[in-house]
Amino acid sequence: MPTARIYQRPKNAMSSGRARTQEWVLEFEPSEAKRADPLTGWAGSGDTRNQVKLAFPTLDAAKAYAEREGVAFHVVPAPVRTLKLQAYADNFR
Predict the structure, then answer these.
(1) 6, 15, 35, 62: most buried, per Cβ within 10 A?
(2) CB 55 within 8 A of CB 27
(3) The domain containing residue 22 runs over which residues?
(4) What CATH code is carried by the domain that includes residue 37?
């Protein structure tokens, strides 16, 4: 039985926008270890499910999909968003 994790996408650290951070992502766990290709040296495996990422508007929709398709899952809670309040003058102390 395949296993998956459901998580909320974090905010991109390189931008101030919060686009696509409200959606939930279902991502399959790898079922076999990666191994080095003897010719190229690249890491890879025969498992193609780790290339699939499904986006859902709500957590309930992601859970419903996993239950309907028979996929075991665990939910990774979103990190708590903390605001760092500071004045502009604090940059020059």
Answers:
(1) 62
(2) no
(3) 3-92
(4) 3.30.160
Show the tokens assigned to 74.
């665990």
**Residue 13 structure tokens:** 């650290």
pTM for this structure? 0.77
22: left (phi over 0), alpha (psi -120 to 50) or beta: alpha
**Residue-by-residue pLDDT tens, the chain, 93 positions:** 789 999 998 887 788 888 888 899 999 999 889 999 999 999 988 888 989 999 999 999 999 999 999 999 999 998 887 888 888 988 898
Instruction: Specify the DSSP element, H or E, that contains 3.
Output: strand 3-8
Domain count along the chain: 1
